[in-house]
User: Fold this.
Amino acid sequence: MRIIDRTRTAMLSTARRWAARLPPPVGQHLSPASLALHLSPVIPGECSANMEIATPDWSLLRQSIVEMVAERGAMPVQVFTVGRALDEGAFRIIRLAHRLDCPVVVWSDGTGLDSTSAAELVDVGCSAVAVTVASLDDDVQRAVVGNSVVEATDAIVALAAARADRGAPIRLHLALPWSAGVEPEVRGVIGWANQAGVDAVTILSPVRGGQVGPLEEWTEVLRDAGVENIGVESERYLRVLSNETGGQPGIPKASSPLRARLRPCPVVGTRIAIDAKGTVFSCPFHPPMGRMTDSILTVWQKDTSHRNAVQQCTRRCRHPTLALGPRLPGRWPIGF
Ligand code: SF4
Assistant:
């Protein structure tokens, strides 16, 4: 029965994601395909050093999950916790989403993820975890991700051990930011991760230009190493992004493929997000929709300014947690 429910969730989510790519008024006015909980303000692949950590309003986050599922049915839930240790409140939220049949993906950099919390993460029903590791060199890891190599690699080892211990079907991804400076150690990171038991290695394109890793021959090297999401389109995107200064997210709309130029960014139809303080948004780079007080859907339905800003956005982003949709690149477990 659970597999049937998960398959239905996956099909609905995919249909909404594709429909969100239709021109307005259809595309931008659909129900969101996924819910994102930003416990930490950074997007995976960005550096979390010096970020401000707010204490989450757990009751609002809980309420947003319950309301979304009651009104729109089960949907994928992403939990962003890069640079922030998972605590009891986060585990309760994940358990709640899991019990409501929402597949939950946690994006972490391994901060505070030891053997005890890894076991708890598996026990509360998380479907997949992506841990960001940029390098086996501590200086590079700190500069690109913001924590230490030991923290990140120990988290992957702890998750793999907890999964094996419990025989749980949780997927484990290594998220590799393709930022300048990661290339000398990249083969070592991928080899180590495969030995540690990750299911896939996936590339995180930098959110902004000005820091993209080298591209000559490297895309071939990464493909040969089995890294996912190095298709022709992402390669082309990275090339354009590498010429950007980094002032704005993504690449200019005019430099994106024709079909992406002709439609608005699908981010509004793709995701509804709420941060630790209860601010609701779809795109993290435009002014938000507003603060959730008692209903996340009311904020969504009343919004026009955020939606207009997205419709008129002159940029195009290609990041697995944003406009590409609520998924890790590559294969999902059953039900995604
Ligand atoms: S609206 Fe879309 S393309 Fe524009 S900044 Fe936001 S995510 Fe990027």
